[in-house]
Design goal:
The chain starts with 7 loop residues before the first strand and ends with a helix. The longest helix has 24 residues. Helix 1 packs across helix 9. It has an 8-stranded mixed sheet with strand order 12-11-8-13-16-17-18-19, sandwiched between helices. A 5-stranded parallel sheet has the order 2-1-3-4-5, sandwiched between helices. Strands 6-7 form a two-stranded antiparallel ribbon. The chain contains 14 helices and 19 strands. The protein is α/β, with parallel strands linked by helices. The chain folds into 2 domains: 179 residues, Flavin prenyltransferase-like (Rossmann fold, 3-Layer(aba) Sandwich); 197 residues, CoaB-like (Rossmann fold, 3-Layer(aba) Sandwich).
Length: 404
């Protein structure tokens, strides 16, 4: 199940006998490449120890809402932002009732209110408790809030009775979690994504470049694949593995990136320019290593081709999305770039002082003609999925308007 690689799963464990299955579920999530953070209620600790879950997760289990040590690092808001999905397995009748009524009296219930990630609930309880009208009313309430209900199964229960209320098996839950990351919103579409820096030679051993790691562009390529698109990744030199199911073209210079993109942009549906392309190159590249001979060295630079502007100016351009990395006047500079280059959308972020470059987190301000969206600080993988969803919505809206 490739869809769980690098996904951040928050596994909530509540106080039911089915908690013993959570250990196997956790092991299998990790097996599939997911990062898992376990959050346990106090009652859950009566059925399975935090030490067991910590050993399987490879990180400490979180239990307390007001944990002063965690509040300075990964507090409840950070945990909510960290998660790609919250999976509560098992979910007792008590927890489902508290979730339905918006309670926030422990860490797990608070996270469910604080997150914008999908929430998945795997009920586990006695058959009479499951069939009770109060439980069914609570299930109806949380379904209306687009919380995913997984199960329950039907069969023999710990109390010796038979009927509905068993927690689904770990393999079934694993499939359900994987499926939530796979959708067909961009099925049949060809997307070109650029990522990473470019390098412009000064001499055989030196070059001009920037601090881009390529992480945002690679995350966007993965998110586009999850959305069903055929993805071509035109990438500068980075230390990242090419995402699965992505066709990659490796380049070094801005001119190479320009040529690689323009060779297939005419057949693309969407172009996302996440690369940090070097604006200038040396007019003359030294054939041999330049020796240190004086107190200063002058380099004559000339403009590189503008990859983004070239795509946007095609006769029939793809839906064109630019990126703007700014150190000041973020909105003004982004909107100017959007308008000057005739883009369909631009995603802007602040850089410098530990922001964006060479980090796993980012924040984006997204602008398009007549609209905008703020995507607050979150892991780049999560931001990429949110951005792809926004791009898809605007892409179809534009083409729907054209059809009319």
């Amino acid at each position: 199940m490739k869809s769980l690689a690098n996904k951040r799963i928050l596994l909530g464990v509540t106080g039911g006998i089915a908690a013993y299955k959570s250990a196997e579920l956790l092991r299998r999530l990790r097996e599939q490449g997911a990062e898992v953070q376990v959050v346990m209620t106090r009652a859950a600790c009566e059925f399975i120890t935090p030490l067991t879950m910590q050993a399987l997760a490879g990180r400490p289990v979180c239990m307390e809402l007001l944990d002063h040590d965690n509040e300075t690092g990964m507090g409840h808001i950070e945990l909510a932002r960290w998660s790609d999905v919250i999976l509560i397995a098992p979910a007792t009748a008590n927890f489902i009732a508290r979730l339905a009524h918006g309670m926030a009296d422990d860490l797990l219930s608070t996270l469910c209110l604080a997150t914008d990630a999908p929430i998945m609930v795997a009920p586990a309880m006695n058959r009479q408790m499951w069939c009770n009208p109060a439980t069914q009313a609570n299930i109806s309430t949380i379904l209306q809030r687009e919380i995913n209900i997984l199960g329950p199964g039907d069969g023999e229960q710990a109390c010796g009775e038979r009927g509905p209320g068993r927690m689904l098996e770990p393999g079934q839950l694993l499939q359900a979690v994987g499926a939530i990351f796979e959708n067909a919103m961009l099925a049949g579409k060809h997307i070109i994504v650029t990522a990473g820096p470019t390098r412009e030679a000064i001499d055989p051993v030196r070059y001009i470049s920037n601090r881009s790691s390529g992480k945002m562009g690679y995350a966007i390529a993965r998110a586009a694949v999850e959305a069903g698109a055929a993805v071509t990744l035109v990438t500068g030199p980075v230390a990242l593995p090419v995402p699965e199911q992505v066709s990659s073209v490796k380049v070094n210079t801005a001119k190479e990136m320009h040529d690689a993109v323009l060779s297939s942009a005419g057949s693309a549906d969407i172009f996302i320019a996440a690369a940090a392309v070097t604006d200038y190159r040396c007019q003359d590249v030294a054939e041999q290593k330049i020796k240190k001979t004086g107190q200063s060295l002058s380099l004559e630079l000339e403009r590189n081709p503008d990859v983004l502007a070239a795509v946007a100016s095609l006769g029939t351009p793809p839906f064109t999305v630019g990126f703007a990395a700014e150190t000041e006047l973020l909105k003004d500079n982004a909107i100017r770039k959007l308008e000057d280059k005739g883009l369909d959308m631009i995603a802007a972020n602040l850089v410098g002082d530990g922001l964006a470059f060479e980090t796993d987190d980012n924040a984006l301000e997204v602008f398009w003609p007549g609209g905008s969206l703020s995507l607050p600080t979150a892991p780049k993988e999560k931001l990429a999925r949110q951005l792809i969803h926004t791009i898809a919505r605007n892409y179809y809206e534009k083409h729907s308007n054209k059809a009319h």
